[in-house]
Design goal:
Blueprint: H1 4-38, H2 42-63, H3 69-77, H4 81-95, E1 101-107, E2 112-118, H5 122-127, E3 130-131, E4 143-147, E5 168-173, E6 176-188, E7 203-210, E8 217-230, E9 241-242
Parallel strand pairs: 2-3, 4-7
Antiparallel strand pairs: 1-2, 1-5, 3-4, 5-6, 6-8, 7-8, 8-9
């Protein structure tokens, strides 16, 4: 046998091994891409699921915290349920840290249920949907805006484009449950900050990147508050507050 024979055989074996590694790596990348296209990016989804589990435990602990003595005295004076809810909403907003769980959003049509955190920074939205700091907490008059991912980190808002007029969106806060009815959708530029302005009635705005796999635009879902159910310390008599029906002041 030629002295080069064993060496050539070793090279061929190395090349075969390298080819196998490249084929497996390519298959894994392809599988990841297909998974992302069909549903969501799997690695960040796992991380988000882990964070959501932790946040749910933290939210449960937050819901069990009783108001301070001063807050209890103030609540005793406030007989109107809307005032009690607004008082506790402002109290939570003052003490909430960025990235902290503050409530839960449920969207039955798309089978979505996620803990909401305070803030919309990069690290905040990795945990779950985040409430825009420049907008109101539910229960404080005005617009509440919540942002979420569509393909990464659990993709909480992946299917919000499927929402239709009058679909229900529920936001549970430690002090009340808020039910909203979808009014409309819009596709806007990322700079369209006017979508979160106050409009003279209490509403919810959901925001996510659009189209899928792109941050070129934003899909916006507008919903109007239709019912408030005080909870926890706000629910002295379990009063249910129904919002009167009426047309939106914006075009539909």
């Amino acid at each position: 046998m030629s002295p080069e024979g064993p060496r050539a055989g070793g090279v061929r074996a190395t090349l075969r091994g390298l080819s196998t590694v490249l084929i497996v790596a390519g298959a894994l990348l392809l599988a990841d891409a297909v998974t992302t296209l069909v549903w969501q990016e799997p690695v960040s989804a796992f991380l988000a699921q882990r964070d959501q589990s932790r946040l749910a435990d933290e939210l449960e602990s937050l819901e069990e915290v009783a108001p301070s003595g001063l807050q209890q005295r103030a609540l005793a004076v406030l007989k109107d349920p809307d005032q009690r809810v607004a008082f506790l909403a402002r109290a939570l907003r003052r003490k909430a840290d960025e990235g902290q769980p503050i409530g839960r959003i449920r969207i039955p049509r798309i089978d979505a249920s996620f803990v909401v955190v305070d803030g919309t920074g990069t690290e905040d939205l990795k945990k779950g949907p985040g409430l825009y700091p420049e907008t109101s907490y539910p229960g404080i008059p005005g617009t509440t805006a919540i942002a979420g991912h569509r393909t990464t980190y659990g993709a909480p808002f992946r299917q919000i484009d499927e929402l239709e007029r009058d679909d229900e969106i529920v936001v549970d806060m430690p002090y009340a449950r808020f039910t909203y009815a979808v009014e409309k959708q819009r596709i806007v530029e990322p700079t369209a900050t006017e979508v979160i302005r106050d409009v003279g009635y209490d509403r919810l705005v959901l925001s996510a990147c659009h189209p899928l796999y792109s941050a070129a635009q934003r899909i916006i879902v507008f919903a109007r508050l239709v019912k408030t159910e005080p909870q926890g310390a706000a629910a002295a008599d379990k009063t249910l507050v129904e919002k009167p029906p009426g047309l939106s002041t914006e075009s539909r």
